[in-house]
Model the fold of this input.
Amino acid sequence: MIVMKFGGTSVESGDAIARLVRTVRSQLARRPVVVVSALGKTTNRLLDFAEHARRGELYLGSKCLTELQDHHFEVAGQVANGEGLHQLEISLQRSFRDLRVILSEVVDEGREVTLALLDEIASFGERMSSEIVAAALESGGVPSVHLDARQLILTDDRHTHASPLYWESYAKLRRAIPHLCDGRVVVLGGFIGSTKDGVTTTLGRGGSDLTASIVGAGISADEIQIWTDVDGMLTCDPCVLQGGYRLRSLSYQEAAALAGAGAKVLHPDTVTPAIRQRIPLVIRNSRRPAVEGTRIVPTIPLCSNPVKAIACKADVTVLEIQPRDERDPAELAAALGEMCERYGMPAEFLCHNEGTIFLAFKSSTRYQNLPIEVAGCVEARLHTQSSILTLVGEGIDGSPEIAARSLAALKQIPATVLSGCRSKLAVSLMVPTTEMRRSVEILHREFFQQIDPMVFAESQDLEPGSAQPVSILTEAGDRAARTARRFRSFRTVCQN
Ligand code: ADP
Ligand code: ASP
Ligand code: MG
Done:
């Protein structure tokens, strides 16, 4: 059995779902279980809807629902037919009726929009998309069965970012799925779960990747495929810098470090369930199934490049903290991390370097409310409008050389090394957000001048309609860079 997870852009339209059906059909012999995200930007729209309801904006809330409803019915009509379509339309109708009831309860009767209600509202995205995809498979001649993921993925009750109860979920998945897979494709929504009491929860934004991985571990899948809108894990986010290389393979640890440092092509916890059973995770482009993608596996080939990729987190505020007493900075950093969790403001980044602790939050966080003094610290400096760039690669191996090389390359940019000690395979730097793109471009040039062709592949341009990268190179410069890169890879091959 394998798990095939399709993200928002891979189910955004009738055409995208038709591609999904073809891709699933091509792998039927491997007994796929399909996990899907909500259609396109549906989760954002549902959260906008919740905000309109909270503000009492009946007209805007209702307009939001009408637009979502039209889109879901349009896509359903494009991908399903016959009795399947009829049943699907009844179910979609019921979902939108329930959402309208919520709107009126909030606006007319003063029901509070709690985090639990937010989860309830957001869950409709994956509940509806999974029904649409199951019907599309049936209509495309692929027998399928739809399961409600909330019955299978159990979580704690930390609404909007619940943690899975792994063992309980594995047991349920193992019991429910394998016997259904004979001759049928099981389809379920990602991102959603429920507490043991049956209250709907969600796993945090981007959480469908994590669902796929939990399902994979639960059924001991041979492979977990993450189908998305890029060719695989690239050496940098294509929305920040175009023209990066595709990684052919990555270790679990490298993938987890990149995801945690901002490479949102994977939810940061995705790797965790796969590791114990050494299940390979493969990132693939749903628009270009011919591209092999990136394999995330336990052992990877030796690589002559120490850095595999650069991840970034834009727009964070970094607190640079000096401990007041002689306490161990590692202990203090851990205590600060726990405190942030307790206050519901998990740190975006936390490390200590030569006695200084760096603690970063999304700029929108109300970090001022945290009792940092109480935790035994003196807040030294606040760096607003900063970005954190993280270089990841097993070849870094704790060496200070990569940090020194980065600082030398970034000489015209006020950059600070945050870590080096935090992890043996990552080095993080802080730069002003206004300099983030330039910094990524400089570091990319510095560390990927020569590439190891066993590990990196040329990643071609994205097709129109998929994620639109914001180029920071001119077209002519881009062409020149590509030619130079081809020449360099050729040289690398010759040198080897
Ligand atoms: P999905 O909806 O399929 O889950 P996401 O939007 O969550 O897709 O993740 C894919 C996006 O991740 C890409 O469009 C890209 O902008 C972003 N991304 C960030 N860093 C990287 C990276 N290093 N390699 C590839 N994609 C990246
Ligand atoms: N639909 C959810 C989100 O947009 C989960 C996911 O796509 O992975 O965050
Ligand atoms: Mg995602």
